[in-house]
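Why do we bother with holo predictions? Because pocket geometry can differ from the apo form. Keep that in mind while you read this record for S-adenosylmethionine.
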Amino acid sequence: MLKEILYKIRKNPISLLQRAIFKIFIGPIKYHNGTDYDAQRYWQDRFSKYGKTLTASGDEGLSEEENCRDYELALNVMTSVFHKENINFEQIKVLEIGCGTGFYTQLLHDLKVKSYTGVDITDVLFAELNQKFSNFTFIQKDVTTDKIIDLSFDLIIMIDVIEHITSKDKLSFAMKNVQKCLKRNGIFIISPIMEISKKHLFHLHSWTI
Ligand SMILES: C[S@@+](CC[C@H](N)C(=O)[O-])C[C@H]1O[C@@H](n2cnc3c(N)ncnc32)[C@H](O)[C@@H]1O
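The structure, written out:
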């Protein structure tokens, strides 16, 4: 964490300062919504700004190349988890919560998944995703407030979404949603879960197990 901040200071201190001002002062006002923040508007703005790049869903403080490198590492981890679980992808129904730019959609597509539903709080990228993955389904839903209707998924993945749910009640709703729509003996893959809860910004909270 400290190493990461020092790297960003050395790389571009002005840009880091601008982002810090936004995240500490401007963002909480701009996205203020009762006791929480307006996550739908936050992600709509973010994807409208960056489009289908990995900076949109990754770390805004890093370049696209650096985000690609980090995503490549995450892809290796995900691939090895899938491998360990010995999943027959052609036979299963998959739900991805927070599909974003479709990074993991691509992986699941490459693994020959036939039945895929991607849920996201914003539909900004859905036209592109629908075009690229025409046999997959994309649905706009806030997993912390809207019930997922289909209740029979064999595999649910939820990557880099939980830290953007900042209220305990909303987290609880989201987890019940998952519990209800996962088949018996289904697999749920979620990250990140932190050892200690340190980070808290208006749009970020690190949850422990
Ligand atoms: C950091 S991005 C991660 C995207 C993708 N899972 C990945 O790893 O590349 C977080 C994603 O979760 C979505 N998201 C955030 N809160 C959500 C919610 N309450 N319900 C559904 N999607 C949500 C955002 O729109 C965004 O696409």
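The beta strands are 32-33, 36-37, 93-97, 115-120, 137-140, 153-159, 182-191, 200-201, 204-205.
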